[in-house]
Design a protein that fits this description.
This protein is α/β, with parallel strands linked by helices. 41% of the residues lie in helices and 16% in strands. The chain has a domain at 11-199 and 231-259 and 294-309: 3-Layer(aba) Sandwich (Rossmann fold). The structure holds nicotinamide-adenine-dinucleotide (NAD) and thymidine-5'-diphospho-beta-D-xylose.
Length: 348
């Protein structure tokens, strides 16, 4: 799709020349920054990242320093946020406390960053009339039963069921209110579960893969039948760029790749691809309130903006992801030790 195709009054037409990416040292944010810098040479990126345990500046290593700048700071710091937003054409907000298990153990950081941080960014975008794209999740819609043929659409009611999901739903509500009340030029995307390189080892797929690599048995929560709708991070990042440059202002777009799989199915595939027996894992206690199933219908994004996923072979995407973790042990080894110590205390 051309950068300046199909411009209308409510549809931004040009690629931003100077983009502010919050949370750009995390998993999806760093994949997005890399995509933008490598494929859109007219765009410069400033990353604002607090470098929490989940943020790693190495994730941006090798990118041209004249086009990528890292500012270490907090999206809840209104002064820093205002200064950076004022000199940007657009903001993409990835910054979040993104892990359900952490939010259950201690919801405070999640509420602060995900809700208060989004509020700060919206206020700055309102003051400086800057385009805002907010990254959200399918978890805002609650969960579906395993035998329910339904999938979430943009019309599904919000029904968050976990601390993390409720913080993301709250942030989405703020964005909608700032669009309606102040005319902030914003869009929201709600995506399903991502996998791919640079994902923190606390998350299911990298945790299982690095456990096998480290000679430890992976862990499966509950009965293992919970279903997630998997999408490769590269497909998510390409969807974000299309929505940022061609999405209708004020709109929400769901991003998913028809990748529903039960956790036990995913774990079996990982074990098979890594040459282990399918039962070489441990069952552990379930996550409290564990959402049963997520499933997204991304028809609007496909129809309106012509997006479609490229990584449609899940086993192939997983193989590449496993290879990435195999080749980047120095990237995950320390985080793995700390993460497993935390999980061990929680009995997971
Ligand atoms: P991540 O945990 O890997 O990265 C989060 C980044 O935000 C880190 O670099 C961290 O240092 C930074 N950060 C945290 N608090 C901050 C603060 N107060 N100020 C500035 N920076 C801060 O997360 P991720 O998996 O890349 O998720 C990115 C976004 O996508 C989140 O908003 C998440 O809710 C959303 N999302 C994730 C998924 C998924 O499957 N991972 C799916 C749908 C939506
Ligand atoms: O060791 C594990 N064993 C296990 O069975 C871990 C870490 C998880 N699980 C299960 C819990 C979930 O059903 O696997 C599934 C996926 O878990 P996570 O990777 O923690 O992801 P999830 O809770 O589904 O949330 C993710 O997708 C939506 C992201 O972390 C969120 O940021 C995103 O919004």
């Amino acid at each position: 799709m051309q950068d300046n195709a199909t411009a209308t009054a409510d549809r931004p037409s040009a690629a931003p020349r100077h983009l502010l990416v919050t949370g750009g040292c995390g998993f999806i944010g760093s994949n997005f920054v890399r995509l933008v810098v490598l494929e859109h040479p007219d765009t410069r990126v400033t990353v604002l990242d607090k470098l929490t345990y989940a943020g790693n500046p190495y994730n941006l290593a090798g990118l041209p320093t004249d086009r990528v700048e890292l500012v270490v700071g907090d999206i809840c710091d209104q002064q820093v946020v205002d200064r950076l937003v004022e000199r940007s054409d657009a903001v993409v907000n990835f910054a979040a406390e993104s892990h359900n298990d952490n939010a259950i153990a201690d919801p405070q950081p999640c509420m602060r960053t995900n809700v208060q941080g989004t509020f700060c960014l919206l206020e700055a975008c309102r003051r400086h009339d800057v385009r805002f794209h907010h990254i959200s999740t399918d978890e805002v819609f609650g969960d579906l039963a395993l035998d329910d043929p339904a999938r979430f659409t943009e019309a599904s009611p919000y029904c968050p069921l976990s601390p993390y999901a409720s913080s993301k739903a709250s942030a989405d509500m703020l964005v909608r209110a700032w669009v309606r009340t102040y005319g902030v030029r914003a869009t929201i995307s709600n995506c399903s579960n991502n996998y791919g390189p640079y994902q923190h080892v606390e998350k299911f797929i990298p945790r299982a893969v690095t456990s096998v690599l480290a000679g430890v048995r992976p862990k499966l929560y509950g009965d293992g039948r919970n279903v997630r709708d998997w999408i490769h991070v590269d497909d998510h990042c390409r969807a974000i760029w299309v929505i940022l440059t061609h999405g209708r202002l004020g709109e929400t777009y769901l991003v998913g790749a028809d990748g529903e799989r039960s956790n036990i199915e995913v774990l079996h595939t990982i074990l098979r691809l890594m040459g282990r027996d399918e039962d070489a894992f441990d069952w552990v206690r379930d996550r409290p309130g564990h959402d049963r199933r997520y499933a997204l219908d991304a028809g609007k994004l496909r129809r309106e903006l012509g997006w479609k996923p490229k990584h449609t072979d899940f086993a192939e995407g997983l193989s590449q992801t496993i290879a990435w973790y195999r080749e980047h042990e120095a990237w995950w080894r320390l985080a793995k030790v700390a993460t497993e110590a935390t999980y061990a205390k929680r009995g997971q």
